[in-house]
């Protein structure tokens, strides 16, 4: 295995925050409404992990270090894991496991629907993240995994809809996402590629 | 359908003491014994800095506030069957966007706000307009403690013992004219001490403003608070003067008031103007009208914990329907939410 320390480091760094937050909730360090805090941290964590995943290809092009691509599947799966935890905390804390209410919420509240769609677009990516599926799907695998961009857009919209009074944090993620998309424009991408040829 | 009209002397089932409470009388007797012992102590033994509630930081009360405490009517309004939210939670989980968007920001950032001396401008349709020093406004009134439920529009709630005076008493003193139909309130603008007012990403425009219809303002439940938990208001809770309207969503209870105007027209209300589809001018607590983005049928009573979120049903008018529903007779509250 190439770069084992790097890969293990990324694994541990992504693994640790949720148990640490749970521990904080346990010791009342998250304040009187720990469920809500946990919900927000997991949601934003998932978004950040998706943004990080999408950083890897441009980073690889720019630096030619093979380590970036090695953690891409891992980070993508972590993004999905955080999204699943986010969903579970929502079901537990906001709905109190009242599933009849879930249908009601999905019907009435577009941001819940958009969040659910974002989760649904991550699901096939997680399911086909293994080598067998990659071989099986061939060229279509890459097309399918463009769903990551849909998940990013839906996730950002989902968050924008919940912001009540201050857009600071959201703007940060939004600008980050725009930069990543700009790097994928054909002209920009070629320039990054040319950088490699010249060096 | 059988319609039962109980005689007035009948005790409604809602007032029947739950068995658990009845059984806890032994514990109560123990506590009462201690309290009796405490009451027998001379007044000086109960120094001002002995907190009336556990975990309360004493704060630095101005002289006028400390002088008011001996005459205060403690527990003038109680919340039967409700557990008071711990002071730490009520003072560290706040929406006060002038100090930042997160719940912890007000407690972290409000400490430097100068609240003494404090002037309140009273103007509009009143016989005695003017700039009043806060202590002059409060001096003629005895403070009372009122334990109210607080229901935030974000679907969480607390139970808080406020110290203050009925807004009606103060308004009567400044003599509203016959034209006064509404009361408008304004929060301080002080970007130097209020970082939220310096943010370029804030969606609210300052000053924060709120308003009540005059009959709502004159209702005996409507309180002007200067303290909570037996002490002066912490800055993050709206020191030195805030409104408390217990049957409305929390955002109506405007903080750090510098101006009270009596007006003929319905006044500007910040959240209402920001998103009229989400926040009505009345903003009465109403489980029948959802916020477009979340349900108002239930609330999380804080402190909640991860595995028991402490969800409970939200009551119409936050449980104060008996007192205030009459104010809205004939109105369609799904339209005038």
UniProtKB/TrEMBL annotation, chain A:
Enumerate the cofactors the protein uses.
FMN; heme b
- Copy out the cofactor comment: Binds 1 FMN per subunit.
Q: What is its main location?
A: membrane
TM stretches of this protein: 5-23, 43-63, 75-97, 109-127, 147-164, 170-187
Location of the Ferric oxidoreductase domain? 43-155
Arranged from A to Z, the UniProt key words for this protein are: Cell membrane, Electron transport, Flavoprotein, FMN, Heme, Iron, Membrane, Metal-binding, Transmembrane, Transmembrane helix, Transport
Q: Choose one Gene Ontology CC annotation of this protein and give it.
A: plasma membrane
The GO biological-process annotations, alphabetized, read as: protein repair
Intracellular or extracellular location(s): Cell membrane; Membrane
Q: A single Pfam family, by name?
A: Ferric_reduct
Q: How does it sit in the membrane?
A: Multi-pass membrane protein
GO MF: electron transfer activity; FMN binding; heme binding; metal ion binding; oxidoreductase activity, acting on diphenols and related substances as donors
| Listed PANTHER family | PROTEIN-METHIONINE-SULFOXIDE REDUCTASE HEME-BINDING SUBUNIT MSRQ (PTHR36964:SF1)
Q: What does this protein do?
A: Part of the MsrPQ system that repairs oxidized periplasmic proteins containing methionine sulfoxide residues (Met-O), using respiratory chain electrons. Thus protects these proteins from oxidative-stress damage caused by reactive species of oxygen and chlorine generated by the host defense mechanisms. MsrPQ is essential for the maintenance of envelope integrity under bleach stress, rescuing a wide series of structurally unrelated periplasmic proteins from methionine oxidation.
* Assembly information from the UniProt record: Heterodimer of a catalytic subunit (MsrP) and a heme-binding subunit (MsrQ).
Similarity comment: family membership: Belongs to the MsrQ family.
The molecule here is called Protein-methionine-sulfoxide reductase heme-binding subunit MsrQ
Which species?
Azotobacter beijerinckii
* Biological classification of the source: Bacteria, Pseudomonadati, Pseudomonadota, Gammaproteobacteria, Pseudomonadales
UniProtKB/TrEMBL annotation, chain B:
Q: EC? A: 1.8.5.-
InterPro entries listed in its UniProt record: MsrP, OxRdtase_Mopterin-bd_dom, OxRdtase_Mopterin-bd_sf, TAT_signal
Q: Which reaction does it catalyse?
A: L-methionyl-[protein] + a quinone + H2O = L-methionyl-(R)-S-oxide-[protein] + a quinol; L-methionyl-[protein] + a quinone + H2O = L-methionyl-(S)-S-oxide-[protein] + a quinol
Give a yes or no for keyword Cytoplasm in this entry: no
A GO BP entry: protein repair
Q: How is the cofactor bound?
A: Binds 1 Mo-molybdopterin (Mo-MPT) cofactor per subunit.
All copies of the Oxidoreductase molybdopterin-binding domain together span 115-271
Q: How is it modified after translation?
A: Predicted to be exported by the Tat system. The position of the signal peptide cleavage has not been experimentally proven.
Q: What family classification does the UniProt entry report for this protein?
A: Belongs to the MsrP family.
Q: Subunit details for this protein?
A: Heterodimer of a catalytic subunit (MsrP) and a heme-binding subunit (MsrQ).
Q: What name appears for this protein in its UniProt entry?
A: Protein-methionine-sulfoxide reductase catalytic subunit MsrP
Q: Which gene encodes it?
A: msrP
